[in-house]
Write a structure and sequence with these properties.
With about 475 residues, the protein is an alpha/beta fold. It has 16 helices and 20 strands. Helix 8 packs parallel to helix 9. The structure holds S-adenosylmethionine.
Length: about 475
Protein backbone atom coordinates (compact mmCIF):
# COMPACT_ATOMS: atom_id res chain seq x y z
CA UNK A 1 0.00 0.00 0.00
CA UNK A 2 1.31 3.42 -0.89
CA UNK A 3 1.03 5.18 2.47
CA UNK A 4 1.93 8.60 1.11
CA UNK A 5 -0.69 8.39 -1.65
CA UNK A 6 -3.51 7.24 0.62
CA UNK A 7 -2.61 9.91 3.16
CA UNK A 8 -2.67 12.61 0.48
CA UNK A 9 -6.15 11.44 -0.59
CA UNK A 10 -7.29 11.57 3.04
CA UNK A 11 -5.93 15.08 3.46
CA UNK A 12 -7.51 16.22 0.18
CA UNK A 13 -10.89 14.78 1.18
CA UNK A 14 -10.48 16.45 4.55
CA UNK A 15 -10.38 19.88 2.90
CA UNK A 16 -13.65 19.12 1.04
CA UNK A 17 -15.64 18.08 4.10
CA UNK A 18 -18.45 20.30 5.26
CA UNK A 19 -17.31 21.65 8.66
CA UNK A 20 -20.82 21.08 10.06
CA UNK A 21 -20.86 17.44 8.97
CA UNK A 22 -17.37 16.93 10.32
CA UNK A 23 -18.68 17.08 13.83
CA UNK A 24 -22.10 15.58 12.96
CA UNK A 25 -20.51 12.48 11.40
CA UNK A 26 -17.41 12.39 13.61
CA UNK A 27 -15.11 12.61 10.61
CA UNK A 28 -11.60 12.22 11.95
CA UNK A 29 -9.82 10.01 9.51
CA UNK A 30 -7.06 7.58 10.34
CA UNK A 31 -3.51 8.40 9.24
CA UNK A 32 -2.14 5.64 6.99
CA UNK A 33 0.59 4.68 9.44
CA UNK A 34 -1.95 4.05 12.21
CA UNK A 35 -4.19 2.21 9.72
CA UNK A 36 -1.32 -0.15 8.82
CA UNK A 37 -0.63 -0.77 12.50
CA UNK A 38 -4.27 -1.65 13.07
CA UNK A 39 -4.41 -3.87 9.99
CA UNK A 40 -1.33 -5.81 11.17
CA UNK A 41 -3.06 -6.35 14.49
CA UNK A 42 -6.13 -7.63 12.66
CA UNK A 43 -4.08 -9.99 10.48
CA UNK A 44 -2.57 -11.85 13.46
CA UNK A 45 -4.26 -15.08 14.49
CA UNK A 46 -6.04 -17.53 12.29
CA UNK A 47 -9.61 -17.52 11.05
CA UNK A 48 -10.71 -20.80 9.55
CA UNK A 49 -13.31 -19.45 7.16
CA UNK A 50 -12.69 -17.48 3.97
CA UNK A 51 -12.04 -13.94 5.16
CA UNK A 52 -14.52 -11.19 4.37
CA UNK A 53 -14.04 -7.65 5.65
CA UNK A 54 -16.32 -5.04 7.18
CA UNK A 55 -15.35 -1.35 7.37
CA UNK A 56 -18.22 0.70 8.75
CA UNK A 57 -17.83 4.47 8.60
CA UNK A 58 -15.22 3.89 5.91
CA UNK A 59 -14.27 7.50 5.08
CA UNK A 60 -11.92 7.42 2.07
CA UNK A 61 -11.19 3.72 2.71
CA UNK A 62 -7.79 3.96 4.40
CA UNK A 63 -8.57 1.16 6.85
CA UNK A 64 -9.99 -1.11 4.12
CA UNK A 65 -6.86 -0.62 2.02
CA UNK A 66 -4.57 -1.33 4.96
CA UNK A 67 -6.54 -4.47 5.91
CA UNK A 68 -6.46 -5.87 2.37
CA UNK A 69 -2.72 -5.20 2.29
CA UNK A 70 -2.09 -7.12 5.53
CA UNK A 71 -4.66 -9.94 5.57
CA UNK A 72 -4.06 -12.76 3.13
CA UNK A 73 -6.76 -14.00 0.89
CA UNK A 74 -9.61 -11.57 1.62
CA UNK A 75 -12.53 -12.64 -0.57
CA UNK A 76 -14.84 -9.65 -0.34
CA UNK A 77 -15.28 -6.24 1.23
CA UNK A 78 -18.35 -4.49 2.59
CA UNK A 79 -18.34 -0.85 3.63
CA UNK A 80 -20.74 1.74 4.97
CA UNK A 81 -20.29 5.48 4.55
CA UNK A 82 -22.97 8.11 5.10
CA UNK A 83 -21.31 11.21 3.65
CA UNK A 84 -21.57 11.46 -0.17
CA UNK A 85 -18.48 13.72 -0.23
CA UNK A 86 -16.40 10.64 0.56
CA UNK A 87 -17.86 8.64 -2.35
CA UNK A 88 -15.38 9.40 -5.20
CA UNK A 89 -12.37 8.86 -2.95
CA UNK A 90 -13.76 5.76 -1.30
CA UNK A 91 -14.83 4.26 -4.58
CA UNK A 92 -11.52 4.75 -6.36
CA UNK A 93 -9.43 3.62 -3.37
CA UNK A 94 -11.53 0.48 -2.92
CA UNK A 95 -11.74 -0.34 -6.64
CA UNK A 96 -7.93 -0.16 -6.79
CA UNK A 97 -7.75 -3.16 -4.43
CA UNK A 98 -9.11 -5.46 -7.17
CA UNK A 99 -11.53 -7.40 -4.92
CA UNK A 100 -15.31 -7.77 -5.00
CA UNK A 101 -16.76 -4.99 -2.86
CA UNK A 102 -20.09 -3.55 -1.84
CA UNK A 103 -20.32 -0.02 -0.47
CA UNK A 104 -23.54 1.13 1.19
CA UNK A 105 -23.83 4.90 1.03
CA UNK A 106 -26.34 4.83 3.83
CA UNK A 107 -26.68 4.85 7.59
CA UNK A 108 -24.80 1.94 9.16
CA UNK A 109 -26.85 2.06 12.35
CA UNK A 110 -30.17 1.74 10.54
CA UNK A 111 -28.93 -0.94 8.14
CA UNK A 112 -27.10 -2.98 10.77
CA UNK A 113 -30.08 -2.93 13.15
CA UNK A 114 -32.30 -4.17 10.30
CA UNK A 115 -29.86 -6.90 9.35
CA UNK A 116 -29.56 -8.08 12.93
CA UNK A 117 -33.28 -8.01 13.59
CA UNK A 118 -34.23 -9.75 10.35
CA UNK A 119 -31.21 -12.03 10.20
CA UNK A 120 -30.32 -10.63 6.79
CA UNK A 121 -27.11 -9.29 5.23
CA UNK A 122 -23.57 -10.55 5.61
CA UNK A 123 -21.78 -11.90 8.68
CA UNK A 124 -18.05 -11.14 8.79
CA UNK A 125 -14.75 -12.72 9.76
CA UNK A 126 -12.85 -9.41 10.00
CA UNK A 127 -13.83 -5.85 10.85
CA UNK A 128 -11.65 -2.78 11.01
CA UNK A 129 -13.07 0.51 12.17
CA UNK A 130 -12.51 4.04 13.23
CA UNK A 131 -16.10 4.81 14.15
CA UNK A 132 -17.60 8.28 14.41
CA UNK A 133 -17.55 9.84 17.85
CA UNK A 134 -20.74 11.65 18.81
CA UNK A 135 -23.06 11.58 21.76
CA UNK A 136 -26.41 9.84 21.21
CA UNK A 137 -29.19 11.66 23.01
CA UNK A 138 -31.41 9.60 25.26
CA UNK A 139 -34.61 10.24 23.29
CA UNK A 140 -33.11 10.01 19.82
CA UNK A 141 -34.26 7.57 17.17
CA UNK A 142 -30.79 5.98 17.22
CA UNK A 143 -31.25 5.17 20.88
CA UNK A 144 -34.56 3.45 20.18
CA UNK A 145 -33.25 1.56 17.17
CA UNK A 146 -30.23 0.32 19.10
CA UNK A 147 -32.39 -0.67 22.04
CA UNK A 148 -34.48 -2.82 19.68
CA UNK A 149 -31.45 -5.12 19.23
CA UNK A 150 -30.42 -5.02 22.89
CA UNK A 151 -27.78 -2.28 22.62
CA UNK A 152 -27.89 0.39 25.29
CA UNK A 153 -25.26 3.02 24.68
CA UNK A 154 -24.56 6.74 24.70
CA UNK A 155 -22.16 7.36 21.83
CA UNK A 156 -21.95 6.54 18.14
CA UNK A 157 -18.57 4.91 18.53
CA UNK A 158 -19.77 2.30 21.03
CA UNK A 159 -22.93 1.80 18.94
CA UNK A 160 -20.76 1.04 15.88
CA UNK A 161 -18.65 -1.46 17.81
CA UNK A 162 -21.67 -3.13 19.43
CA UNK A 163 -23.38 -3.55 16.04
CA UNK A 164 -20.15 -4.82 14.50
CA UNK A 165 -19.88 -7.40 17.28
CA UNK A 166 -23.39 -8.63 16.50
CA UNK A 167 -22.54 -8.83 12.78
CA UNK A 168 -19.43 -10.99 13.28
CA UNK A 169 -19.18 -14.72 12.76
CA UNK A 170 -18.02 -16.84 15.66
CA UNK A 171 -14.23 -16.46 15.92
CA UNK A 172 -14.40 -13.21 13.95
CA UNK A 173 -11.87 -10.48 14.74
CA UNK A 174 -12.42 -6.77 15.22
CA UNK A 175 -9.82 -4.03 15.48
CA UNK A 176 -11.03 -0.52 16.29
CA UNK A 177 -9.47 2.79 17.19
CA UNK A 178 -11.68 4.46 19.76
CA UNK A 179 -11.66 6.99 22.60
CA UNK A 180 -10.76 5.29 25.85
CA UNK A 181 -13.74 6.70 27.72
CA UNK A 182 -15.67 3.43 27.37
CA UNK A 183 -13.12 1.60 29.55
CA UNK A 184 -14.38 3.02 32.82
CA UNK A 185 -17.23 5.47 32.34
CA UNK A 186 -20.36 4.40 34.23
CA UNK A 187 -22.52 5.31 31.22
CA UNK A 188 -20.63 2.75 29.15
CA UNK A 189 -21.28 -0.12 31.52
CA UNK A 190 -24.04 -1.76 29.39
CA UNK A 191 -21.74 -1.52 26.38
CA UNK A 192 -18.83 -3.10 28.25
CA UNK A 193 -21.13 -5.91 29.40
CA UNK A 194 -22.33 -6.57 25.86
CA UNK A 195 -18.80 -6.48 24.48
CA UNK A 196 -17.42 -8.85 27.13
CA UNK A 197 -20.38 -11.18 26.86
CA UNK A 198 -19.74 -11.73 23.15
CA UNK A 199 -15.99 -11.18 22.82
CA UNK A 200 -12.60 -11.46 24.47
CA UNK A 201 -10.08 -8.67 24.32
CA UNK A 202 -6.84 -10.07 22.95
CA UNK A 203 -4.89 -6.84 22.45
CA UNK A 204 -4.93 -3.22 23.51
CA UNK A 205 -2.71 -0.46 22.27
CA UNK A 206 -2.16 2.73 24.22
CA UNK A 207 -0.70 5.91 22.81
CA UNK A 208 1.71 7.65 25.16
CA UNK A 209 1.03 11.05 23.77
CA UNK A 210 -2.49 12.43 23.88
CA UNK A 211 -2.06 14.74 20.99
CA UNK A 212 -0.82 13.24 17.85
CA UNK A 213 -3.02 10.35 16.62
CA UNK A 214 -5.34 12.69 14.80
CA UNK A 215 -3.07 15.71 14.72
CA UNK A 216 -4.26 16.75 11.27
CA UNK A 217 -7.68 17.26 12.84
CA UNK A 218 -6.57 18.86 16.11
CA UNK A 219 -8.19 16.05 18.08
CA UNK A 220 -7.13 15.92 21.72
CA UNK A 221 -9.24 12.90 22.57
CA UNK A 222 -7.28 10.10 24.19
CA UNK A 223 -7.52 7.07 21.90
CA UNK A 224 -6.74 3.42 22.19
CA UNK A 225 -6.78 0.54 19.72
CA UNK A 226 -8.72 -2.51 20.84
CA UNK A 227 -8.61 -5.95 19.29
CA UNK A 228 -11.51 -8.32 19.97
CA UNK A 229 -12.22 -11.94 19.13
CA UNK A 230 -15.84 -13.02 19.08
CA UNK A 231 -16.98 -16.06 21.03
CA UNK A 232 -13.57 -17.13 22.29
CA UNK A 233 -12.30 -17.15 25.82
CA UNK A 234 -8.76 -15.76 25.88
CA UNK A 235 -6.74 -15.86 29.09
CA UNK A 236 -4.11 -13.26 28.15
CA UNK A 237 -4.16 -9.73 26.82
CA UNK A 238 -1.18 -8.13 25.11
CA UNK A 239 -0.91 -4.43 25.88
CA UNK A 240 1.34 -2.39 23.65
CA UNK A 241 2.33 1.20 24.22
CA UNK A 242 3.83 3.67 21.81
CA UNK A 243 4.49 7.28 21.36
CA UNK A 244 1.96 7.91 18.60
CA UNK A 245 4.51 9.74 16.46
CA UNK A 246 6.62 6.64 16.37
CA UNK A 247 4.55 3.50 15.94
CA UNK A 248 7.76 1.52 15.49
CA UNK A 249 9.04 1.94 19.06
CA UNK A 250 6.59 -0.27 20.81
CA UNK A 251 6.69 -1.76 24.27
CA UNK A 252 4.78 -5.01 24.68
CA UNK A 253 3.52 -6.49 27.92
CA UNK A 254 1.34 -9.55 28.43
CA UNK A 255 -1.19 -9.65 31.26
CA UNK A 256 -3.70 -12.16 32.47
CA UNK A 257 -7.20 -11.22 31.34
CA UNK A 258 -8.16 -11.29 35.03
CA UNK A 259 -5.77 -8.36 35.63
CA UNK A 260 -7.52 -6.31 32.96
CA UNK A 261 -11.09 -7.24 33.76
CA UNK A 262 -11.45 -8.15 37.39
CA UNK A 263 -13.82 -11.02 38.13
CA UNK A 264 -17.13 -9.99 39.72
CA UNK A 265 -16.42 -6.30 39.09
CA UNK A 266 -20.01 -5.03 38.77
CA UNK A 267 -18.77 -2.20 36.52
CA UNK A 268 -16.70 -4.46 34.21
CA UNK A 269 -14.02 -1.78 34.01
CA UNK A 270 -11.16 -2.29 31.60
CA UNK A 271 -7.94 -1.52 33.43
CA UNK A 272 -4.44 -0.91 32.21
CA UNK A 273 -2.00 -2.58 34.59
CA UNK A 274 0.90 -1.24 32.52
CA UNK A 275 -0.11 2.19 33.77
CA UNK A 276 -0.35 0.87 37.27
CA UNK A 277 3.20 -0.37 36.89
CA UNK A 278 4.30 3.07 35.87
CA UNK A 279 2.54 4.53 38.88
CA UNK A 280 4.19 1.99 41.12
CA UNK A 281 7.63 3.07 39.97
CA UNK A 282 6.88 6.42 41.54
CA UNK A 283 8.18 7.29 45.02
CA UNK A 284 4.61 8.15 45.95
CA UNK A 285 3.42 4.55 45.84
CA UNK A 286 5.88 2.36 47.74
CA UNK A 287 4.56 1.39 51.19
CA UNK A 288 1.42 -0.27 52.45
CA UNK A 289 -0.43 1.02 55.49
CA UNK A 290 0.85 -2.08 57.26
CA UNK A 291 4.48 -1.04 56.49
CA UNK A 292 3.68 2.38 57.91
CA UNK A 293 2.20 0.89 61.10
CA UNK A 294 -1.20 2.43 60.36
CA UNK A 295 -4.52 0.60 60.57
CA UNK A 296 -7.67 1.22 58.61
CA UNK A 297 -11.13 0.31 59.92
CA UNK A 298 -14.65 1.21 59.01
CA UNK A 299 -16.17 3.46 61.66
CA UNK A 300 -17.49 1.22 64.49
CA UNK A 301 -20.83 3.02 65.07
CA UNK A 302 -23.70 2.02 62.76
CA UNK A 303 -26.08 4.96 63.04
CA UNK A 304 -29.28 3.29 61.86
CA UNK A 305 -28.88 0.65 64.58
CA UNK A 306 -28.64 3.35 67.26
CA UNK A 307 -31.54 5.56 66.20
CA UNK A 308 -32.78 6.19 69.73
CA UNK A 309 -29.34 7.38 70.86
CA UNK A 310 -28.70 9.84 68.03
CA UNK A 311 -28.75 13.53 68.95
CA UNK A 312 -29.42 16.10 66.27
CA UNK A 313 -29.67 19.21 68.39
CA UNK A 314 -27.18 19.26 71.25
CA UNK A 315 -29.59 21.41 73.29
CA UNK A 316 -32.06 18.50 73.35
CA UNK A 317 -30.17 16.58 76.02
CA UNK A 318 -28.34 17.05 79.26
CA UNK A 319 -27.02 13.48 79.19
CA UNK A 320 -23.37 12.82 78.29
CA UNK A 321 -22.86 12.73 74.53
CA UNK A 322 -20.05 11.89 72.13
CA UNK A 323 -19.51 13.95 68.94
CA UNK A 324 -20.15 11.96 65.78
CA UNK A 325 -18.63 13.58 62.66
CA UNK A 326 -20.36 13.35 59.26
CA UNK A 327 -19.22 14.77 55.90
CA UNK A 328 -21.41 17.86 56.31
CA UNK A 329 -19.29 18.85 59.32
CA UNK A 330 -16.36 19.46 56.94
CA UNK A 331 -16.64 22.51 54.76
CA UNK A 332 -13.67 22.81 52.39
CA UNK A 333 -11.74 20.65 54.83
CA UNK A 334 -12.52 22.88 57.85
CA UNK A 335 -14.69 21.56 60.68
CA UNK A 336 -17.99 23.26 61.43
CA UNK A 337 -19.42 21.68 64.56
CA UNK A 338 -22.13 21.37 65.72
CA UNK A 339 -24.09 21.89 62.54
CA UNK A 340 -27.74 21.07 61.86
CA UNK A 341 -28.52 18.67 59.03
CA UNK A 342 -31.95 17.34 58.07
CA UNK A 343 -30.74 13.75 58.05
CA UNK A 344 -27.61 13.42 60.14
CA UNK A 345 -27.10 13.89 63.90
CA UNK A 346 -24.30 15.78 65.61
CA UNK A 347 -23.68 13.30 68.39
CA UNK A 348 -24.62 10.03 70.05
CA UNK A 349 -25.48 9.31 73.68
CA UNK A 350 -22.58 7.97 75.71
CA UNK A 351 -24.03 4.56 76.59
CA UNK A 352 -22.31 1.63 78.25
CA UNK A 353 -23.27 -0.61 75.34
CA UNK A 354 -21.28 1.51 72.88
CA UNK A 355 -18.36 2.32 75.16
CA UNK A 356 -15.98 0.12 73.13
CA UNK A 357 -16.96 1.95 69.95
CA UNK A 358 -15.77 5.34 71.18
CA UNK A 359 -12.17 6.19 70.46
CA UNK A 360 -10.00 8.76 72.27
CA UNK A 361 -9.75 12.05 70.45
CA UNK A 362 -6.56 12.61 68.46
CA UNK A 363 -5.31 12.99 64.87
CA UNK A 364 -7.34 10.73 62.60
CA UNK A 365 -7.86 10.65 58.84
CA UNK A 366 -11.45 10.00 57.78
CA UNK A 367 -12.06 8.75 54.24
CA UNK A 368 -15.56 8.63 52.83
CA UNK A 369 -16.65 5.14 51.89
CA UNK A 370 -19.32 6.42 49.51
CA UNK A 371 -18.56 9.44 47.38
CA UNK A 372 -21.36 11.46 45.84
CA UNK A 373 -21.67 11.82 42.08
CA UNK A 374 -20.77 15.50 42.22
CA UNK A 375 -17.44 14.74 43.81
CA UNK A 376 -14.54 15.13 41.42
CA UNK A 377 -12.41 12.60 43.26
CA UNK A 378 -13.23 9.07 44.35
CA UNK A 379 -11.04 9.35 47.44
CA UNK A 380 -12.10 12.15 49.79
CA UNK A 381 -10.21 12.47 53.09
CA UNK A 382 -10.63 14.76 56.09
CA UNK A 383 -8.32 15.49 58.99
CA UNK A 384 -9.66 15.27 62.54
CA UNK A 385 -7.48 16.90 65.21
CA UNK A 386 -7.66 16.68 69.04
CA UNK A 387 -9.33 20.09 69.11
CA UNK A 388 -11.86 19.49 66.32
CA UNK A 389 -14.77 18.50 68.58
CA UNK A 390 -13.79 19.56 72.12
CA UNK A 391 -14.33 16.06 73.46
CA UNK A 392 -12.05 13.40 74.91
CA UNK A 393 -13.90 10.67 72.95
CA UNK A 394 -15.20 10.44 69.39
CA UNK A 395 -17.78 8.25 67.65
CA UNK A 396 -16.88 7.34 64.06
CA UNK A 397 -19.83 6.30 61.95
CA UNK A 398 -19.76 3.32 59.63
CA UNK A 399 -19.75 5.49 56.47
CA UNK A 400 -16.12 6.36 57.19
CA UNK A 401 -12.89 4.50 56.76
CA UNK A 402 -10.75 5.63 59.67
CA UNK A 403 -6.94 5.65 59.60
CA UNK A 404 -5.72 5.10 63.16
CA UNK A 405 -3.04 3.57 65.37
CA UNK A 406 -4.51 0.77 67.51
CA UNK A 407 -7.81 2.70 67.83
CA UNK A 408 -5.93 5.82 68.91
CA UNK A 409 -4.93 8.88 66.95
CA UNK A 410 -1.92 9.06 64.62
CA UNK A 411 1.19 11.19 64.81
CA UNK A 412 0.16 14.74 63.78
CA UNK A 413 2.64 15.07 60.88
CA UNK A 414 1.69 11.66 59.43
CA UNK A 415 -2.06 12.30 59.69
CA UNK A 416 -1.65 15.70 58.01
CA UNK A 417 0.57 14.26 55.27
CA UNK A 418 -1.87 11.39 54.65
CA UNK A 419 -4.78 13.82 54.29
CA UNK A 420 -2.83 15.86 51.75
CA UNK A 421 -1.72 12.79 49.80
CA UNK A 422 -5.14 11.10 49.78
CA UNK A 423 -6.84 14.26 48.50
CA UNK A 424 -4.50 14.59 45.50
CA UNK A 425 -5.41 13.81 41.90
CA UNK A 426 -2.36 11.51 41.80
CA UNK A 427 -4.12 9.23 44.28
CA UNK A 428 -7.42 9.54 42.50
CA UNK A 429 -5.85 8.41 39.20
CA UNK A 430 -4.01 5.62 40.96
CA UNK A 431 -7.18 4.48 42.69
CA UNK A 432 -9.14 4.35 39.46
CA UNK A 433 -6.59 1.98 37.93
CA UNK A 434 -7.05 -0.45 40.81
CA UNK A 435 -10.59 -0.14 41.93
CA UNK A 436 -13.56 -0.87 39.79
CA UNK A 437 -16.23 0.43 42.11
CA UNK A 438 -17.23 3.86 43.27
CA UNK A 439 -16.95 2.87 46.93
CA UNK A 440 -13.70 3.14 48.82
CA UNK A 441 -13.44 0.06 51.04
CA UNK A 442 -11.02 -0.53 53.88
CA UNK A 443 -9.60 -3.41 51.79
CA UNK A 444 -8.89 -1.04 48.91
CA UNK A 445 -6.96 1.20 51.28
CA UNK A 446 -5.08 -1.78 52.73
CA UNK A 447 -4.08 -2.84 49.21
CA UNK A 448 -3.05 0.64 48.19
CA UNK A 449 0.53 1.94 48.31
CA UNK A 450 1.63 5.16 50.03
CA UNK A 451 4.78 7.31 50.25
CA UNK A 452 7.34 6.71 53.01
CA UNK A 453 6.83 8.20 56.49
CA UNK A 454 9.45 10.85 55.73
CA UNK A 455 7.67 11.93 52.56
CA UNK A 456 4.29 11.97 54.30
CA UNK A 457 5.71 14.12 57.09
CA UNK A 458 7.24 16.50 54.58
CA UNK A 459 3.89 16.77 52.77
CA UNK A 460 2.16 17.32 56.11
CA UNK A 461 4.40 20.26 56.88
CA UNK A 462 3.29 22.04 53.71
CA UNK A 463 -0.39 21.14 53.88
CA UNK A 464 -3.30 22.83 55.55
CA UNK A 465 -6.92 21.62 55.30
CA UNK A 466 -8.30 24.75 53.60
CA UNK A 467 -6.06 24.25 50.55
CA UNK A 468 -7.67 23.90 47.12
CA UNK A 469 -7.07 21.08 44.65
CA UNK A 470 -4.35 22.89 42.77
CA UNK A 471 -2.40 23.62 45.93
CA UNK A 472 -2.72 20.02 47.14
CA UNK A 473 -1.63 18.67 43.77
CA UNK A 474 1.39 20.92 43.57
CA UNK A 475 2.57 19.75 47.01
CA UNK A 476 2.15 16.07 46.09
CA UNK A 477 3.70 16.50 42.64
CA UNK A 478 6.76 18.16 44.16
CA UNK A 479 7.53 14.83 45.88
CA UNK A 480 7.13 12.64 42.79
C1 LIG B 1 -13.92 8.77 12.36
S1 LIG B 1 -14.34 8.76 10.67
C2 LIG B 1 -13.28 7.47 10.12
C3 LIG B 1 -13.20 7.30 8.64
C4 LIG B 1 -12.34 6.15 8.20
N1 LIG B 1 -12.82 4.88 8.72
C5 LIG B 1 -10.91 6.34 8.62
O1 LIG B 1 -10.49 5.62 9.50
O2 LIG B 1 -10.25 7.23 8.10
C6 LIG B 1 -15.96 8.10 10.72
C7 LIG B 1 -16.64 7.97 9.39
O3 LIG B 1 -17.95 7.46 9.63
C8 LIG B 1 -18.88 8.12 8.78
N2 LIG B 1 -20.21 8.03 9.42
C9 LIG B 1 -20.68 8.78 10.45
N3 LIG B 1 -21.91 8.39 10.80
C10 LIG B 1 -22.22 7.34 9.99
C11 LIG B 1 -23.34 6.50 9.88
N4 LIG B 1 -24.40 6.63 10.69
N5 LIG B 1 -23.33 5.53 8.93
C12 LIG B 1 -22.26 5.36 8.11
N6 LIG B 1 -21.16 6.14 8.18
C13 LIG B 1 -21.13 7.11 9.11
C14 LIG B 1 -18.33 9.53 8.68
O4 LIG B 1 -18.82 10.22 7.53
C15 LIG B 1 -16.84 9.27 8.65
O5 LIG B 1 -16.37 9.13 7.33
Amino acid sequence: MNLALIDSIRLEANTKLDPNNKSLFGQFMTPAKVAMFMAKMLSEGSVTEEPNLLDCGAGVGTLTSAAVHCIKNIQSIEQWEIDPIMKPYLESNTRALGLPFLTHYSDFIEDAVNNIKNNTGTRFTHAILNPPYKKINSNSSYRKLLRSVGIETVNLYTAFIALTILLMKDGGRIVAIVPRSFCNGTYYRPFRKLMLEHCSINKLHLFDSRVSTFQDDDVLQENIIISLVKGRSISEVVISTSNSDDLENIELNTFKTSEIIIEHDPESFIRFPSEAKFIQNSKLFKHSLLDLGIKVSTGPVVDFREKSSLIKDLKDTTLPIIPMPYPHHFVNGIIEYPKQHKKYPNAILKTEKLSKSFWPSGYYVLIKRFSSKEEKRRVVAYLVTPTSFESSLLAFENGWNVLHFEKHGLQKSIATGLTCFLNSMEVDNYFRVFSGHTQVNATDLRNMLFPSKDLLEAMGEKYSPEMNQQQIDSIVESFK
